[in-house]
Amino acid sequence: xxxxxxxxxxxxxxxxxxxxxxxxxxxxxxxxxxxxxxxxxxxxxxxxxxxxxxxxxxxxxxxxxxxxxxxxxxxxxxxxxxxxxxxxxxxxxxxxxxxxxxxxxxxxxxxxxxxxxxxxxxxxxxxxxxxxxxxxxxxxxxxxxxxxxxxxxxxxxxxxxxxxxxxxxxxxxxxxxxxxxxxxxxxxxxxxxxxxxxxxxxxxxxxxxxxxxxxxxxxxxxxxxxxxxxxxxxxxxxxxxxxxxxxxxxxxxxxxxxxxxxxxxxxxxxxxxxxxxxxxxxxxxxxxxxxxxxxxxxxxxxxxxxxxxxxxxxxxxxxxxxxxxxxxxxxxxxxxxxxxxxxxxxxxxxxxxxxxxxx
Length: 359
Ligand SMILES: Nc1ncnc2c1ncn2[C@@H]1O[C@H](COP(=O)(O)OP(=O)(O)OP(=O)(O)O)[C@@H](O)[C@H]1O
Ligand SMILES: [Mg+2]
Prior knowledge:
alpha/beta; Rossmann fold; Glutathione S-transferase Yfyf (Class Pi), Chain A, domain 2; 2 domains; six-stranded mixed beta sheet; globular; binds adenosine-5'-triphosphate; binds magnesium ion
């Protein structure tokens, strides 16, 4: 079970030097606009995933007056994760004191879910966002998935390079196609199996938050349902050459989220969308727990926006049942405090101008 017992954040946005000892269940992070609440969640997120959820440029996360930032967390069972991001020297990530080349092992120790105002993009954003959602789940339950995914991306990059050349090297193409087909088929198989286990869990969780008649979520693998990937690549070759990029394969997979014939994002209100997305994320964590007994950590930014009090309580109840550690922000602690059972271990942290006081 991943629980953060100690968190140090230095020079991340306006957080100059923060040291907290979070509660193992609910942590309420409250304070005025611009005080640094989202930045605290961002720091945890960067530690677990290597990137920010609100900026593609990591530079913008570092305090403008500094050249680097440091984030350190101690998890239960003695696991420590440390990250130093520097404007000049890139990053240094350490897990249990050992330098890490990738985020794969760190991410496994700290399965993070986030619910924030960007969560709508799962419904209305690009397929890439839904693939990320899906792959988060597969990654945490299928250990070989990350390697297959990385190798497939390498193949894809090589294949795309070949497609851009004036004269196509057919022998090389064949070699990359063989490997890409095999890896792509494995990725598809694992995604498909994951979705088959995920959907029944979502069907149980969703009505606890909202009834959505005729909701249909379908996994689309990225190529013709009746063809093998090798066949689909052969059929698509002329088009691929025209585009100079591979148009078919696991990198084109998507989740179709529809109500009747319409995209869910076109039909549901903002609040309803937030409930659906929250149910999808919570169902992923329920599945993770069922398969691995891992509970993960939830980052919830500004839950009160778009949700009335009744729905806030419903989401908090589901989250509480998960038994996971939660970091939840709000302007006024009163908005969130009454959403939890009285006997749950709760930490309250007041953020003021980049400083945090534990209450
Ligand atoms: N690179 C940076 N260096 C220093 N300060 C920054 C940097 N980037 C953003 N800030 C400032 O950090 C502060 C904290 O921002 P943050 O988004 O964490 O606030 P918040 O408490 O979540 O506010 P809100 O309630 O409005 O969501 C803001 O005043 C912002 O202008
Ligand atoms: Mg914020």
